[in-house]
Q: What sequence folds into this?
């Protein structure tokens, strides 16, 4: 038998043996496994509610387990403080709200959602009669972890991953629900003297020193030294929490935008900015920026002077003078 | 002389001991329609009570979007972790082991989002007899809030990098690592991704890295990492 025939014969028997062993399950092909993932959805992302001391509040949160496995959830409530700039909560470790409320006791127990299951959670919050007039900034956290521990799947060292998803509740405790917000301009950030060839830039930090959150309503107008309006700016109606600040997001008025109501999140979220600017080819003289935030108005003056042009002229004169001096010396 | 009489108006509040109907509404019709060619998708509610809007931004001191159609402003906030088992395999001195997963956020609200991260404790032997310390990176200066370069495979530790949309700014590139905030040491969890704008499939890759030196006890080291996704307001 030639070598080729021997090789073919060996291959034939090897294939047959492999098939036999497979049939006998002595060689187990590792089954393909879908990656275990956590996929969560929650509604609402944020809610603003009012309740009187002594009353009971029903707050509903919808939670979705869109993962490919069952997850066990535990709920907790923590306070958050505003970051003071962009409306992002900074979570604290616990909540002072527990002192003023009693929760449905069943909600403190873990619960399981199967893969693809949704759950509507109705939170009953009984507010203490003695609860002081105050706005609470709360985040309901839902911690999700696999029902089955997966460490056995590791081939060595590693980590199991858990996910927590939050839903914010800004709750105003007040016997009357009267609006006690107080929104004002905290700071206007701008350079008071700029070069004529540079853009005029500004940003507005608004503050709410009152007791409850409020939507900010703001406009800005820019006038030149002839008191002619050269530009106008509209601002998105963001919410400023009680005792916090926020940078206002706006955009310049344009032929497409003539009314603040036209600024919706859907249409203009890509154009909104906390840094506004006015950038013609050349600025000169005194400019007056008039800013109105919730009926409070402030004005700042910005002077545009041709420093760079003066510098270029001076540099030119120096070079010319230097050349002349050199020529005279040479002669 | 004009005599007037007023009658008491009673409005129904739909509730019982076991339910409260929110957004209660008396309609005469509702539904949705799609155009041929999908040039538009329309939902409608007819005859509902007192539909808005009321008030006007910049003019009145209030704005109320009243009616069932305003429910579309209440959108779902969603968060996905692509793989919940991070397998670093066998750790050997003089080399780093890595694994990764993806975080994805969707929020249509104007408030944006923040994702925080923390570990329950450092990588630890199941018996608890030894730990792999959290990394301090090549220069010894990275912290739970400030990433630095960690490429020297002779430097042991455990840390992570974030790469993608809306990552924290200190993750300059994929060589920059931080240790996780340690829950056991009461370290505050740290933001790793955030945005104040709308996020549609905002995605980032988290790379976990671990390394050991020759003094590390043999065995499998484990910990748990938790990611916290919070919407803005």
A:
């Amino acid at each position: 038998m030639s070598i080729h025939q021997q090789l073919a014969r060996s291959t034939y028997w090897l294939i047959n043996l492999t098939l036999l062993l497979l049939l006998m399950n002595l060689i187990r092909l590792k089954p393909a496994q879908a990656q275990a993932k956590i996929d969560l959805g929650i509604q609402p992302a944020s809610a603003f509610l009012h309740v009187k001391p002594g009353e009971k509040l029903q707050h509903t949160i919808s939670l979705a387990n869109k993962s490919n496995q069952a997850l066990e959830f535990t709920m907790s409530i923590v306070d958050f403080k505003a970051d003071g700039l962009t409306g992002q909560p900074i979570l604290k470790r616990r909540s002072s709200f527990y002192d003023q409320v009693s929760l449905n006791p069943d909600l403190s127990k873990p619960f399981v959602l199967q893969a693809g299951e949704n759950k509507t959670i109705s939170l009953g919050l009984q507010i203490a009669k003695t609860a002081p007039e105050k706005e609470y900034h709360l985040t309901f956290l839902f911690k999700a972890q696999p029902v089955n521990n997966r460490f056995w799947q590791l081939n060595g060292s590693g980590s199991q991953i858990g996910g927590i998803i939050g839903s914010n509740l800004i709750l105003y405790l007040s016997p009357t629900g009267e609006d006690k917000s107080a929104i004002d301009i905290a700071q206007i950030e701008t350079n008071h003297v700029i070069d004529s060839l540079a853009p005029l830039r500004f940003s507005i930090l608004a503050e709410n020193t009152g007791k409850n959150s409020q939507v900010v309503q703001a406009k800005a107008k820019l006038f030149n030294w002839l008191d002619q309006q050269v530009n106008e700016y509209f601002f998105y109606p963001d919410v400023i929490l009680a005792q916090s600040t926020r940078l206002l997001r706006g955009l310049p008025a344009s032929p497409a935008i003539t009314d603040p109501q036209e600024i919706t999140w859907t249409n203009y979220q890509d154009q909104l900015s906390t840094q506004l600017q006015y950038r013609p080819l050349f600025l000169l003289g005194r400019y007056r920026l008039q800013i109105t935030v919730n009926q409070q108005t402030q004005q700042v003056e910005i002077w545009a002077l041709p420093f760079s042009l003066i510098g270029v002229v001076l540099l030119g004169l120096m070079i010319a003078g230097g050349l002349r001096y050199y020529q005279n010396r040479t002669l | 002389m004009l005599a007037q009489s007023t009658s008491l108006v009673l409005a129904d509040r739909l509730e019982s001991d076991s339910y409260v109907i929110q957004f209660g509404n008396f309609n005469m019709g509702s539904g949705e329609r799609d155009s041929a060619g999908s040039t538009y998708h329309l939902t409608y509610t007819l005859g509902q009570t007192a539909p808005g809007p009321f008030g006007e931004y910049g003019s009145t001191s209030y704005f109320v979007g009243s009616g069932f159609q305003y429910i579309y402003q209440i959108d779902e906030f969603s968060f996905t972790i692509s793989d919940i088992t991070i397998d670093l395999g066998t750790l050997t001195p003089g080399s780093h082991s890595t694994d990764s997963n993806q975080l994805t956020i969707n929020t249509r609200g104007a408030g944006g989002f923040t994702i925080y991260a923390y570990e329950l404790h450092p990588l630890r032997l199941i018996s608890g007899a030894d730990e792999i310390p959290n990394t301090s990176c090549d220069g010894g200066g990275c912290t739970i809030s400030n990433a630095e370069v960690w490429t020297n495979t002779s430097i042991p530790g455990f840390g992570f990098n974030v790469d993608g949309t809306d990552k924290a700014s200190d993750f300059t590139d994929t060589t920059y690592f931080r240790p996780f905030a340690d829950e056991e040491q009461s370290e505050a969890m740290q933001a790793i991704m955030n945005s104040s704008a709308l996020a549609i499939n905002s995605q980032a890759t988290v790379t976990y890295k671990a390394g050991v030196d020759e003094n590390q006890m043999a065995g499998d080291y484990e910990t748990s990492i938790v990611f916290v996704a919070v919407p803005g307001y």
Chain B has two domains: 29-73, 78-231. The radius of gyration of chain B is 27 Å.
